[in-house]
Structure to design on (264 residues):
């Protein structure tokens, strides 16, 4: 397991993710997450690491008949974006809190969503224990995360791509966290009801795509790491954009979705 330190999401990250998460690949990820959650009228749901609040907003729309939606995050700038996004919904609330110390009573929630968060969390045993603790008996969690080892990103220099992606993975506490979910879910006393992949496949690095909006972020991160200077990082991005002009761009990445239930 990696010992990378957890990333802090500042206001620049909040702005970037707010834009990036409007991409069709992220819209599809939310559709699949909502489908897996099957929220019922009157239910209470917690969105752990709610980020800019796109999913929270969809949940607020579905949480009819006194249902309530709570978003938590460790980033104040993210919470500000999420609060603004959901301001018309009186059934939502937001709190600054950590996935490993949830400020809720035992067995108090019908459902929990955790999307693209656990790859930033060092103590997952504690995070999963907290997840299980706050769920009501019979309640369910939908957990979605990426495994960066599923990445296929075409480049004219495969060795350089491998080197750059190995460094990029250090941005996460565990860039391949999804493969650990079966064990973590089971050891937290939850039962896996369903597991599936949510693939992203993109043939263009346009700004409106997930990979296109991620490209400048990867370039910025790589500059100065592992012997890569800013010009070399930029050359890597330029190569991918040049491939695109020839119709040779290909990006694919898998996210994995798990539905876990607390026994009655
Ligand atoms: C990539 S964003 C995902 C946002 C949102 N779940 C979504 O899919 O749209 C990751 C979010 O997790 C939050 N986060 C990271 N570590 C956390 C922790 N230990 N507890 C709660 N939130 C955390 C970050 O601040 C950030 O807002």
């Amino acid at each position: 397991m990696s010992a990378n330190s957890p990333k802090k999401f500042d206001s620049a990250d909040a702005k970037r993710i707010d834009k990036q998460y409007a991409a069709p690949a992220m819209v599809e990820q939310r559709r699949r997450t909502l489908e897996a959650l099957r929220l019922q009228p009157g239910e209470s749901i917690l969105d752990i690491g709610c980020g800019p609040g796109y999913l929270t907003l969809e949940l607020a729309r579905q949480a009819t008949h006194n249902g309530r939606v709570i978003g938590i995050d460790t980033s104040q700038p993210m919470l500000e974006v999420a609060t603004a996004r959901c301001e018309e919904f009186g059934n939502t609330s937001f709190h600054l809190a950590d996935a490993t110390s949830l400020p809720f009573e035992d067995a108090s929630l019908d459902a929990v969503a955790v999307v693209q968060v656990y790859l930033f969390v060092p103590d997952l045993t504690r995070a999963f224990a907290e997840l299980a603790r706050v769920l009501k008996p019979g309640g369910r969690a939908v957990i979605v995360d990426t495994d960066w080892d599923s990445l296929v990103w075409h480049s004219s220099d495969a060795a350089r791509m491998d080197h750059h992606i190995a460094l990029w993975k250090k941005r996460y506490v565990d860039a391949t966290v999804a493969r650990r979910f079966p064990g973590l879910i089971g050891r937290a006393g939850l039962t896996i009801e369903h597991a599936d992949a949510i693939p992203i496949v993109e043939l263009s690095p346009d700004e409106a795509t997930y990979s296109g909006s991620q490209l400048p972020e990867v370039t910025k991160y790589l500059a100065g790491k592992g012997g890569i200077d800013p010009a070399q990082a930029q050359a890597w991005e330029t190569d991918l954009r040049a491939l695109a002009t020839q119709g040779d761009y290909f990006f694919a990445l898998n996210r994995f979705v798990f539905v876990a239930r607390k026994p009655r």
About this structure: The first strand starts at residue 44 and ends at 48. The pocket of S-adenosylmethionine is lined by residues 9, 17, 21, 48-51, 54-55, 72-75, 78, 98-99, 115-117, 120-121 (CB under 6 Å). The two ends are 33 Å apart (CA to CA).
